[in-house]
Specification:
This protein is an alpha/beta fold. The protein has a five-stranded parallel sheet. Strands 6-7-8 form a three-stranded parallel sheet, covered by helices on one side. It has a two-stranded antiparallel ribbon with strand order 1-2. The longest helix is centred in the C-terminal third of the chain and has 21 residues. The radius of gyration is 21 Å and the shape is globular.
Amino acid sequence: MSITTPADPFVIAGKSYQSRLLVGTGKYKDFEETKLAIEASGTEIVTVAIRRTNIGQDASTPSLLDYVPPSRYTILPNTAGCFTADDAVRTLRLARELLDGHSLVKLEVLGSAQNLFPNMPETLIAAKTLVSEGFDVMVYCSDDPIQCKMLEDIGCVAIMPLASLIGSGMGIINPWNLRLIIDQSSVPVLVDAGVGTASDAAIGMELGCDGVLMNTAIAGARDPIRMAVAMKEAVQAGRNAYLAGRVPRKYYDADPSSPVEGMIHSRSK
């Protein structure tokens, strides 16, 4: 089942996709499990850490692209492990060469090796450079509405605020900030980092996010293949719920499912 329709397209950098779930390729036991989980997820965009995964840099070892071919998936090179703007820019220039001029990239510049929180000043510098060089930049960032708007104004094609710390599985810690970012953005907003289970993905989509990116939540599950299916279904359910429009919360008054007007009442004799 497709989660998109002509009236509700999911478009990144001018290209339409059927799936709103993006997945990573790290932490699986081997490339074969990576392949199976990605297939089960239904994703079309697969993110790859250029500094940690061989996609052609080393001809003597297996390449991920033999299992996740660019002919089937959009490969989204990312800068995981970079702590400066210069390192991130250099890494994505290499990725563009390895992927024959591919321009869609995921930028992340980290500020701490312990909590992997983004370094926003360096992220803004790197984003400006990459956009000026013709990259289509999807950017991992803090859930700060002001800095998210700055990234959009620079020209990033998607804003990707963290839900909680990378790999933490804590879910969406601050839905209010996320909603502020969604409401102000004219480019896609995707939850990135912190998803732990299917309900986290559904909540992000119900808030109005355009998509969800995850890695650890699938790769770290007891059964990654089954979890990939669960995440696919959760993203679909969350998007449908958002489009359908939830009933308003009523904190003090109940509202019966069946109307009471015209109800037949029994009379005591």
